[in-house]
Automatic annotation (TrEMBL), chains A, B:
CDD domains: GATase1_PfpI_2 (cd03139), HMA (cd00371). It comes from the Bacteria. Transmembrane segments: none annotated. GO terms for molecular function: metal ion binding. This is AraC family transcriptional regulator. It comes from Brachybacterium alimentarium. Gene3D superfamilies: 3.30.70.100, 3.40.50.880.
Length: 280, 280
């Protein structure tokens, strides 16, 4: 590694590397102005890209090559948690990509091995509600998952009325996936029968309609998200970011959630559940 | 229009339609349980889709057909403001799509005629920092613009080092476009010479490096965004949403910015400039 000129640099780089998921130990043999040797002990294999990404964020340090990285080994390559973010035509961009950002940071910075993908109903690219076209990594249900994020947007109403697609979502829930909706994505979970008798929320403008469609659901107001165990629902659009941070808190740890808030500079309130923004 | 059963419905629909940009007057001739006639007077042509979108959000009202819409006419089809959001390989998703969401809502709900596009350096699709591939509407500089959003992410550092691309950004600034960066997008504006002698901000982790690269810039901390007139910069990742709302406030009105906060359920603080999230 080049660019290390003092013990301050060593401390900076050590702190940055220790923050990487799986890293247990960092030792730096400083050669001022030359090529310093960095030894990293981790419980999983780190890629050059991961190490470079971390170093890049913090300063002008360049990685000469990775040649002193010990890998403690792992019993399996499978992730601890498989997470899919569902995209569909007319999905509200921020509903999906707010959680996407949080969850992909989780995959980078978390203490658990998390694999996060973007999926669509058929694996093809989708045109979101505000006109952005997004490519995806796979299709809904093409692998067992632990968590599905269902965004809202005008496409969610159409999806909620499509019995075949709703059936695919029901099956994922039956197979044990936690289902998390953002905004009017709650209509999709409702159509799949997942809101009956539980506490849930949605966009403030859509609460009345959701309550009417699902009389046994208890639709609450004033909360950024509602965690009912197997089903988690959030308020409108930006509240999906808060819910995703809560999911990191729940499935990993509060410390990891705060780490993500810090890199995203997002003011998340785990206890207060955020400020309600119901009208102006 | 069908589904209107009482004067409460009439009030709801009237309020929803009045909120649409350009609508000046709404009159509803109620036929309970049948087809009511809705007359809309607007200073621009409304599409069926726009009207349906609004009605859909609020309840179970269905549009039979649009046949009583008066169009006051407009002197020009050109937008008041042309806004491009720049995407590039390695751009942080939320840096770009947070503002995208705000600005596209502005185009729908604002009092000014705003045209917002996604662009890339060459008009081709890009792969963002967290792996999402996004298609775009055009390429940087292919039309005169009033405002450019430059996101951060690891791709921003590469872009900042590419003299040819930085030159294209300088030229847009010279032609009068307001330049707005999110997160480490400030490095790109800095490379274009746009930060010299002005107040600016960036991601808290990148402040030191930005200050070092641009000694005459005054890099501040603790603010979600810094408006220096022709150049506006925001703190990291999610702060781009706050900055975009400020740009709506500045180029349109505070009322429109609050309208967007309301539909996005985003707790924006125009005076306080948001809560600083510098570390955990």
């Amino acid at each position: 590694m080049t660019g290390l000129t003092c013990h301050g640099c060593v401390e900076t780089v050590t702190a940055q590397l220790i923050a990487v998921r799986g890293v247990k130990e960092v030792n730096i043999d400083l050669v001022e102005g030359g090529v310093s040797t960095v030894s990293v002990v981790a419980d999983r294999e780190l890629t050059d890209g991961e190490v470079e990404g971390v170093l890049h964020a913090g300063g002008a340090f360049a990685l000469a090559r990775v040649d002193a990285m010990s890998f403690l080994g792992s019993t399996t390559n499978a992730p601890d948690l498989a997470v899919d973010v569902l995209f569909f035509d007319g999905a509200e961009e921020l509903d999906a990509i707010g959680p996407w950002e949080v969850l992909r940071f989780w995959a980078e910075l978390g203490d658990r091995r998390v694999d996060v993908r973007a999926v669509s109903l058929d694996g093809k690219s989708v045109r979101c509600a505000k006109g952005l076209t997004v490519d995806v990594d796979g299709s809904l249900g093409d692998r067992p998952i632990d968590l599905l994020i269902v965004p809202g947007g005008r496409g969610a109403d159409i999806l909620a009325g499509d019995l075949e697609q709703v059936g695919r979502i029901s099956r994922l829930a039956e197979q044990g996936a936690t289902m998390a909706s953002v905004c009017t994505g709650a209509q999709v979970l409702g159509a799949a029968g997942l809101l009956d008798g539980i506490n849930a929320t949605t966009h403030w403008m859509a609460r009345g309609q959701l309550q009417k469609s699902h009389p046994s659901a208890r639709i609450s107001s004033g909360e950024r998200w509602v965690d009912s165990g197997d089903v988690v629902t959030s308020a409108g659009v930006s509240a999906g970011i808060d819910m995703a941070l809560h999911l990191v808190d729940r499935f990993d740890s509060r410390a990891v959630a705060h780490r993500i808030c810090s890199v995203m500079e997002y003011p998340w309130h785990p206890e207060a559940r955020g400020e309600a923004v119901i009208s102006t």
